[in-house]
Each structure stands twice: as structure tokens, then as C-alpha cells.
Design brief:
- There is one protein chain.
- By secondary structure, this protein is an alpha/beta fold.
- It has one domain: Rossmann fold (3-Layer(aba) Sandwich), CATH 3.40.50.880.
- It is built from five helices and twelve strands.
- It has a nine-stranded mixed beta sheet with strand order 2-1-3-4-12-11-10-7-8. It has a three-stranded mixed beta sheet with strand order 5-6-9, with no helix packed on it.
- The longest helix is centred in the C-terminal third of the chain and has 14 residues.
Length: about 200
């Protein structure tokens, strides 16, 4: 069973519909108790880094996610759910993230911010998430902050004035900067890959 974390920062309806479309059994989880019985976790998110961390902490879900990541259980972060894996973000000063990635989320210094719309993902190494998805496929993005390239983690990159990580994969830790649930056939293929191969 896939648990989709509901902490009032996610694009939950679209995520649940996409999972249903690929016949993946999923449920929304809002409390630590509701996470009993799930074996995969998706953390979506749209909004501010600091507010998201505050909501996770106040609900008790921060510790649950932290422990989940510590024991390397299957995880998929989407958009803000990818950025919270960093040590922190330029958006909110000293608010710490989960620190699973050794860098901060940075604000785009040029171009129209936030980036809204379709952009390409370039494969830079072998990836289960991107398996059988054509290189330079288009996905839907909506974000004003980005992650740099992380050796041994970054498997896909995107260009928007700067080349940044758009797909992260390491053991059971997976994350994407774009919204697969809004990315048509390529996004559904990526979600299917995560369910079946990661």
C-alpha cells in the first residue's frame, strides 16, 4: 500500500488520480497512526519550504518521515517534497530540512520565476525511475527554487538558466522536481516505474 502524505501542502487529488490510473493502491495519510500498514511513501508538495516543515513538525509527521528515510524505505518526493530532502532552503533561512541531500535549495537568479510549464528532463545516468522513458521528455514544472547536481543522486537534469537536478534516485530514495501527476504519459510512466521497479 502506498501512503500519500497529506500535510496541507500537496497536490493530493491529482496524485491520487494518477496512482489510480496506473492501478496502484494508495491512501492518504494525515497522522502517524494512519501510516501503519503502508510500505511506500509519497511526499508531494506545493508552497513554501518553511511552512511545509512547520506543518510536518506540528503533526508529528516530520519524525515519521525522518525515520522512514533513515531505514531506506521506498520514498518518492514530488516538487516541494524533493526540496525538503535538503539541509535547508534560501527561502526560509535557518529552517532545517531532512538533510538527506548535502545542499540547500537555491532561488533561480534569472528568467521568469517561478518556472511554470513544460520543460525537458535529460538522463545523465542509468535510472529505474526513467527506464523506458525517452530522453529529453517533457514534464510539467512549477517551482521557484532548485537543487544543484548531487553526485551519486542526480539521474536527470533540466535547464532553466542553470542546469539543476530534476530527478534524484539513490537506493530507495527517489524524488522529482516536476509534477508527474500533471505530466501526461511520461509522468504516468515514471510513477509506474517507481511502483514496479524502485
Amino acid at each position: 500500500m502506498i501512503g500519500v502524505l497529506d500535510y496541507n501542502a500537496g497536490n493530493l487529488c491529482s496524485v491520487m488520480k494518477a496512482l489510480d490510473h496506473i492501478n496502484a493502491e494508495a491512501c492518504l495519510v494525515r497522522t502517524v497512526e494512519e501510516c501503519a500498514g503502508i510500505d511506500r511513501l509519497i511526499v508531494p508538495g506545493v508552497g513554501a519550504f518553511g511552512s511545509a516543515i512547520d506543518r510536518l513538525r506540528s503533526s508529528g509527521l516530520f519524525d515519521l518521515v525522518d525515520q522512514w528515510l533513515a531505514v531506506n524505505r521506498p520514498f518518492l518526493g514530488i516538487c516541494l517534497g524533493m526540496q525538503v530532502l535538503c539541509t535547508g532552503s534560501d527561502e526560509t533561512g535557518d529552517v532545517p530540512g531532512f538533510a538527506r541531500l548535502p545542499l540547500r535549495a537555491r532561488h533561480f537568479a534569472s528568467g521568469k520565476v517561478p518556472q511554470i510549464g513544460w520543460n525537458q528532463v535529460k538522463k545523465i545516468r542509468s535510472s529505474r525511475l526513467l527506464q523506458d522513458i525517452e530522453d529529453n521528455s517533457f514534464f510539467y514544472f512549477l517551482h521557484g527554487y532548485y537543487l544543484g547536481i548531487v553526485d551519486d543522486f542526480t539521474v536527470g537534469t533540466t535547464d532553466y538558466g542553470i542546469t539543476y537536478s530534476s530527478v534524484i534516485e539513490h537506493d530507495s530514495l527517489c524524488a522529482v522536481q516536476f509534477h508527474p501527476e500533471k505530466s501526461g504519459a511520461a509522468g504516468l510512466a515514471l510513477l509506474r516505474n517507481w511502483v514496479e521497479r524502485c
